[in-house]
Amino acid sequence: MDFSETRCEVFQADAHTNLLSHMWIPDNGIKAIIIGIHGGLAHAGDHVTPALFFKEHNIATFAPDLRWHGTFPQYNKNEKNFFHINSYDDYATDIHNYYKKIRKEYPDIPVFIMGHSNGSLISLKYALSLGKNEEIKGFILSSPWLKNRVVISPVMLFFSKIIAKVFPRFAITPESLNDKLTHDSEITKRHYEDEKKGLRGTQVSAKLGAESLKCQNWVIENIQNWTKYPLISVIAGQDCIADPIIAREVLDMIPEELHNPCFYKDNFHENYNEINRDEIFTTILSWMNERM
What is the DSSP letter of 176? Predict the structure, then answer.
């Protein structure tokens, strides 16, 4: 355990897939549970920053490494760490099974889902599909990845779709953005160290490009069906990965009584790791308490 977890255990997502689950458990009882869904190229240990804050307020955090992320290769023979997925339905199914497991173990504890970046996209996909009828108290989203901030030419998109069909695991190494994720230099240093350890990925698959675009479009087309869950969104104005304008426009389609938007114009992409994170966490905590 490298991220101040209370414990870790292996979660069997399906018959062939094992995911390491990180858990931060309060010492004096649990009044709520957060299921953390990390971003692309990252890992569940990145939830340490919010998890330790909420642990002090008797809120537990449970977070799995997503498929092909973090420790995935250690528990799944002949696999590797890179940003890849066959379908976002796989992500949604994993989160659904993980939620069911936690709900079975803690049937009377309120559950919230917290996503960041690609984890926010997965959260939206899950809430609008497999999770639409569950007893989830609310969703907490940071920098929802609903459109790439970097514009990709139509020609590149065309060829990437062809490559994704022929060589779905064809790996591309994008420009490193570690220096543009947070203003906190210590966390930036940790990101580089995690890359050296093999916990943070450095490559993206061709299939991921096609599937993420498909999921983004699906969420945008279906967001008008968001009629049940309270949601708080944290948008970063200086986000170099997820387009903040599109994120705000899409989430504004959610009924006003269900959506609490928060915008931080000077933040980089990783709101939960930014230097103003205690302000953000305090706002989220207040919002959670109102719904418990």
Answer: P
